[in-house]
């Protein structure tokens, strides 16, 4: 169904449409909609939105929510790629709506159409919102916090730059779940801890100040742990922070294989 | 604010130096900042999935040689598939070298393929019951195939046909 831009009857809150800026293209946005109270299954709906090439997709979603259909729901908070709440499947790839620009979504033939679906593999709640609890359960399972034995130091725990560099990449994770929900192993078997949990375990396993590498490696050597990874690189492709996710997973495998970190 | 560490000798140092003194490893006491903490040994639990993962890679490497060699000999070299008959097979298996080659290929390919299927079954079966019975079926097929294949390679008798 195509909802016209000027269809006042569906306007969320009846807000007055802002003027269309110069250089805007009419973007057709296909969004997977699902209302658990009325729908048996998700369906696609289309919206036409005037968008500038420099707009983020998040602006486009806001336009739809604010001016066309106020019932559309999606998560977002920071709008600057920091909080990790707006990972969604954009043209089939997991992206943050707040980081991807409209100009990057226009095809080579400048086809002004984009498809937005929720991330795959987590229970769908409504529209673009999925239940993130299974994802965070896997995250909690790897004990993502510093565990140090012995006496509390009275000062900062000192670490050399070389030691700090070992896990620098994996400190950048914002827990958006883009990686885990792009992994075909996770789609097939959601007991798999998934790339994000491994990334966050890596963050502490390779930290010289941490004493619980054994515990975390033990958890990850389980049958639902790192050995399920089939090196498809989907996770690395989608990570909005550019983390070398597959590399981190392989480093954990290596630590398990050679029994040292 | 009163600083409890102010009376210690370290407390009077500028903050960037106090760290070097505070971490009294061998290297830092000689005035060298350790570039990297020593590698820590780790203990790990059950390693079955790790050995399975390693086996897939190691058997894969060996299979490249065995399978490509096998394909080349059987299908390409010296007239290829057209020269294969009872005598050709009998001639090859008369040599322990080809017996071992074929035996290794049989075992490795079967265990490699079966282990791959085991992983796929683990991925896709939804119910523990389905998983269990598919794994049993797989195990039975491995025993039958490896058993029958090994039996033939060891007991092949070229005079059987005549
Ligand atoms: C010729 C040389 C071969 C090489 C180098 C090779 C290598 C590999 C490797 C490295 C994997 C693990 C993939 C992963 O876990 O990420 C794998 C999986 C697999 N292999 Fe092989 N293999 C070879 C031959 C074979 C043969 C002859 C068979 C069949 C009998 C076979 C059947 C499988 C199956 C079923 C899997 C599981 C696929 C999956 O995990 O999704 N392979 N192979
Ligand atoms: S590793 Fe990257 S893709 Fe995965 S949760 Fe962290 S930030 Fe998101
Ligand atoms: S809204 Fe915070 S990461 Fe996109």
From TrEMBL, chain A:
Q: What is its EC number?
A: 1.3.5.1
Matching PANTHER family, A to Z?
Answer: SUCCINATE DEHYDROGENASE [UBIQUINONE] IRON-SULFUR SUBUNIT, MITOCHONDRIAL, SUCCINATE DEHYDROGENASE IRON-SULFUR PROTEIN
According to the UniProt entry, its GO molecular function terms are: 2 iron, 2 sulfur cluster binding; 3 iron, 4 sulfur cluster binding; 4 iron, 4 sulfur cluster binding; electron transfer activity; metal ion binding; succinate dehydrogenase (quinone) activity
EC top class, as a word: oxidoreductase
Tell me which species this is from: Nakamurella leprariae
Q: What is this protein called?
A: Fumarate reductase iron-sulfur subunit
Pathway entry: Carbohydrate metabolism; tricarboxylic acid cycle
Report whether Ubl conjugation shows up as a keyword of the record: no
Gene3D superfamilies per record: 3.10.20.30, Alpha-helical ferredoxin
Q: Record keywords: Iron-sulfur included?
A: yes
| One Pfam family named in its UniProt record | Fer4_8
Q: Which residues form the 2Fe-2S ferredoxin-type domain?
A: 32-122
Cofactor note from UniProt?
Binds 1 [4Fe-4S] cluster.
Protein family according to the UniProt entry: Belongs to the succinate dehydrogenase/fumarate reductase iron-sulfur protein family.
Q: Which GO terms describe its cellular component?
A: plasma membrane
Reactions accelerated catalytically: a menaquinone + succinate = a menaquinol + fumarate
Q: Which UniProt keywords apply?
A: 2Fe-2S, 3Fe-4S, 4Fe-4S, Iron, Iron-sulfur, Metal-binding, Oxidoreductase, Tricarboxylic acid cycle
Looking up NCBIfam families in the UniProt record yields: dhsB, PRK05950.1
What SUPFAM superfamilies does its record include? 2Fe-2S ferredoxin-like, alpha-helical ferredoxin
Q: Name one GO biological process term.
A: respiratory electron transport chain
Automatic annotation (TrEMBL), chain B:
| Annotated segments matching region Disordered | 1-38
- What keywords would UniProt list here? Heme, Iron, Membrane, Metal-binding, Transmembrane, Transmembrane helix
User: What is the protein's given name?
Assistant: Succinate dehydrogenase hydrophobic membrane anchor subunit
Where are the bilayer-spanning segments?
A: 50-73, 93-111, 132-156
N-terminal signal peptide: none
* One Pfam family per UniProt: Sdh_cyt
| Polar residues composition bias: residue spans | 1-10
Q: Which GO terms describe its molecular function?
A: metal ion binding
InterPro entries listed in its UniProt record: SQR/QFR_C/D, SuccDH_FuR_B_TM-su
Q: Where in the cell is it found?
A: Membrane
Q: Which species does the entry assign this protein to?
A: Nakamurella leprariae
Q: Which Gene3D superfamilies match?
A: Fumarate reductase/succinate dehydrogenase, transmembrane subunit
Q: What's any one GO cellular component for it?
A: membrane
| Major localisation | membrane
């Amino acid at each position: 169904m195509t909802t016209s831009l000027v269809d006042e009857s569906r306007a969320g809150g009846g807000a007055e449409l802002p003027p269309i800026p110069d250089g805007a293209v009419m973007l057709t946005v296909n969004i997977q909609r699902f209302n658990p109270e009325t729908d048996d299954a998700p369906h696609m709906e289309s919206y036409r939105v005037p968008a500038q090439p420099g707009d983020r997709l998040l602006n486009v979603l806001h336009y739809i929510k604010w001016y066309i259909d106020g019932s559309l729901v999606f998560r977002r908070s920071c709008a600057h790629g920091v909080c990790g709440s707006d990972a969604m499947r954009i043209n089939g790839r997991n992206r943050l709506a707040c980081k991807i620009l409209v100009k990057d979504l226009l095809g080579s033939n400048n086809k002004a159409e984009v498809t937005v679906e929720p991330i795959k593999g987590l229970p769908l709640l409504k529209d673009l919102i999925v239940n993130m609890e299974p994802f965070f359960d896997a995250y909690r399972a790897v004990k993502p916090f510093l565990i140090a034995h012995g006496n509390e130091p009275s000062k900062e725990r000192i670490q050399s730059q070389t030691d700090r560099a070992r896990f620098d990449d994996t400190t950048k994770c914002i827990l958006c779940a883009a990686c885990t929900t792009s992994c075909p192993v996770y789609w097939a078997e959601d007991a798999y801890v998934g790339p994000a949990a491994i990334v966050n375990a890596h963050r502490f396993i390779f930290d010289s100040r941490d004493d619980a590498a054994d515990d975390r490696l033990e958890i990850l050597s389980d049958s639902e742990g790192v050995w399920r990874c089939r090196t498809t690189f989907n996770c690395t492709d989608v990570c909005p922070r550019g983390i070398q996710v597959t590399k981190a997973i392989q480093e954990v495998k290596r630590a398990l294989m050679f029994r040292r970190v | 604010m009163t600083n409890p560490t102010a009376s210690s000798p370290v407390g009077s140092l500028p903050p960037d130096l106090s760290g070097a003194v505070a971490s009294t490893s061998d290297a830092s006491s000689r005035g060298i900042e350790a570039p990297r903490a020593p590698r820590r040994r780790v203990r790990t639990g059950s390693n079955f999935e790790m050995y399975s993962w390693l086996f897939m890679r190691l058997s894969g490497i060996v299979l490249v040689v065995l399978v490509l060699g096998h394909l080349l000999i059987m299908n390409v070299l010296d007239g290829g598939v057209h020269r294969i008959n009872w005598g050709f097979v009998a001639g090859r298996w008369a040599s322990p070298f080809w017996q071992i080659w074929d035996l290794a290929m049989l075992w490795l390919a079967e265990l490699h393929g079966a282990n791959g299927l085991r992983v796929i079954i683990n991925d896709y079966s939804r119910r523990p019951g389905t998983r269990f019975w598919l794994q049993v079926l797989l195990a039975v097929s491995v025993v039958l195939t490896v058993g029958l294949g090994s039996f033939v390679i060891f007991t092949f008798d070229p005079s059987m046909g005549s």
